Amino acid sequence: MNDRALQDDVIRALADAPYRASAEWRGRGLVDAGKVERFARFLARHFYHERIVHFFKYSRALARVTARWPEAVLRQPGFDALLATAVLGERATAHAVARLVTAYVAGEEVPYHKDLLRYQEAMMVVEAGPRVWRDTGRDDDRPAVVPPPSWLKAPSCSSWSTTCQRCCPSCCNRGQRPPRLRGAQRASSWRARVTDAWRWHARATPSLPWCASPMARVRWTTWRARPVFVPAKSRRRYAI
Amino acid sequence: MMVGAFYNPHLGAELAAARNIDHLAMADPPAAGDRHWPAIKQRYTLLLHDYLGQLSEPLDDRAIERARSLAGLYDSPWVAEHFQCLHTEDGTYNLNYVFPPLYTEEFLARFVTNANALKARLDQPLVMENIPGFFDVHASQMPEPVWLRRFFDATGTGFLLDLPHVWLEAHYRGLTPQAWLAEFPLEHVVEVHVAGVEQDRDLEGPWIAPTAPSDAMLDFMAHALTRCPATRAVTFDAFSPSLTADVLFSSVDRIRAAL
């Protein structure tokens, strides 16, 4: 085994809890097992903190109304229990973490929060692999570090038709026409496709207020929940 | 000597109006909707300090073009990258956090080759930042400072000395920070990073945090600067949405006072 492969082995041990616990890894005796475990837990909390903050940004914005911050789950026993089986970047782990967040954040304060949580959870799972979200320097959100694994390839919304049940089955089932996407989005950006699908879904859902995007819906909710401020002139007028 | 901080976009308004900061390091490109960016760009010397890639592998043309365009956008006097190897070669596992390579001959050859290739494509000098190890891997063949010295001698790149990283390594090795620092190739240092550390529950010990540097850390910085004659900038290394303007500006003031 060359040094690069050895480094890969150390990285895997830090990222993959079951491998870290295996006889194969422990038998190598490369490192202090206690220190590696502590560092791996530190990395896992950091890894999912970043992802929760990114993917549950709408629920974070709604915390002004709900008083429940999604990243708070990282300090709860449920997440600690998950660390024994966590594999950083794996869909199953992303799903488990997202479920913890959803269970913690869900509530009755915001009527559309359940739908929003489903969307955020789905995005966190589908983007579970190694990604750089903040910038790729190309005005899209393709990864800058390494290409996504093949299973990350999203269904193409340009192929929406009555037979396309994968993108948004509930919409297709209602027999409504799927969204038309702008050319650049359709060609290059998975997130843009999902966001546009969400926008269309929001407009097609009559029980929810119409808004342009999930964040706009969140802003609308937090605006409604704001403390009512009566301007000074009005206060004087009402004083008598 | 310049004294600066990292550009924290949530403090854009305060930074645009600040007078006690000479430069800003850019960890991320400016967001498209950042209304403070034009003022920041006009007001400050900007240092490219983004993730360009890991030099255990050659950077591809796309990554190099990105580095070139960001360096051009910032008009950065130098370009920084880290001594890190944080994802597996096939991309299956990625720690999403700085992590050092094995200090071996093979990794030295890889980093030298790939840093020279990157350097040749940049219009600005390349500087490399040291990364702390929380544990030793028994496969390493030489101490980190020896590996770094050989790297800098072979590439002629500058050294971005992160003092909290040295401080933490010394702590976990049971050494004094000054004794551990003395092993490093300080004559290559171009820029110094200073920051605070906090107790971490998982690590059961201190680790880097977006907090103000302690008096002990500032004393350590003053000690280090007497041994780094080519240093051109000191940067308060804190980049986090939780960082407050108070902490940022008071830290820069205290760094300046300790010089």
Structural overview:
The complex is a heterodimer of chains A (240) and B (259). Chain A has 240 residues and is an all-alpha fold. Chain A has one domain. Chain A has 13 helices and no strands. In chain A, α7 runs antiparallel to α8 (113-126). The termini of chain A are far apart. Chain B has nine helices and ten strands. Chain B starts with a strand and ends with a helix. Chain B has a single domain, classed as Divalent-metal-dependent TIM barrel enzymes (TIM Barrel), CATH 3.20.20. With 259 residues, chain B is of the alpha/beta class. Helix content of chain B is 38%, strand content 18%. Chain A binds chain B through residues 2-8, 10-12, 14-16, 29-32, 35-36, 38-39, 41-43, 45-47, 50, 88-89, 129-130, 132, 134-135, 137, 144-147, 149, and chain B through 28-29, 51, 53, 56, 63, 66, 69-70, 85-97, 99, 101-102, 104, 106-107, 110, 134-139, 200, 202-204, 207.
Name the features.
heterodimer; A: about 240 residues; mainly alpha; 13 helices; about 55% helix; B: about 260 residues; alpha/beta; eight-stranded parallel sheet; 9 helices; 10 strands; globular
Condensed summary:
Chain A is built from 13 helices and no strands. Chain A has helices at residues 3-15, 17-21, 23-26, 33-55, 57-66, 77-82, 91-105, 113-126, 169-173, 183-188, 190-203, 214-224, 232-239. In chain B, strand 8 and strand 9 form a beta hairpin.
